[in-house]
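Quick one: structure tokens for this chain, please?
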Amino acid sequence: MNSESGKPSNESLHVITVRKANAQDIKPIVRLFEIAIEEMESHRGGKQLINDLSGFAGINLLVHAGRWKVVTEAIAQPTPTFWLAQQDGIPCGFSWGRVAQHCDFGPLLGVVDFLYVVSDARRQRVGEALIDEMKSYFKSQGCNAMDANALPGDRFSKGFFEEAGFKARLLVMNTSI
């Protein structure tokens, strides 16, 4: 850190790369997915979001085999659904997204189903690089907007998405019956 400007000094800068995930990325993405799931489970609403994503994926993401299957099948698709972020060549984050029909009849919508960056790489533009890559892809597919989930009370994620230009458009309330 440069003490005069408060900005990172050149020696603390890292090379961040993001690309469509391929078959060699399955193991590191599943490893990152497992760390992300552990973190999510402790947040309010985390288990519910994991269950919702499990329903969308048609497989239990709470078990290792489920995560492995989702990542393996998605990476085999011709269109990117998983992106891998690397910092200085080391996997440090991933995102999972899809193109959806907005409101069953409206324009196409890019959906960020999952975005995760390891804690050591946060606040170093890794998440922004993942979002930028997804924005470019979704735009190329005819999407005119993107949605992403942030858990209730997760101010870091909410702030991250707001800085990336997202605005809250829906708050889902839930109760057990």
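The chain has one domain: 15-163.
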